[in-house]
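Cross-check.
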Amino acid sequence: MPIILKRRDNESNERLIRRFSRRIQTSGLLLRAKRRAHFERAKNETQRKKDALRRLAARTRDEYLRKIGELSEETYTRGRMSRGNAKKRTTNAKKS
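Predicted model, tokenized:
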């Protein structure tokens, strides 16, 4: 479904672009395009199980390394949280 806009009389280019952007946002066309850009095929049951076992093994390995001190706590939390929150947590921990 193409979106067609014609320039109105005495309408600036900036206004036309703004009106086009708004029309794209409200149509949902951009969301559909983003979803299709990252489409992944469904995995079969054995592949899902193998992936789950691999994640479980990596998680247990990381927990073990953290417990024995080979993996720092800061490294562990940064992978699990967004960058901004990880910085806040480390700075708050230093202040306490």
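Helices lie at 13-27, 29-37, 45-68, 73-80, 83-95. Residues 45-95 form one domain. Passed to J.P. for a second look.
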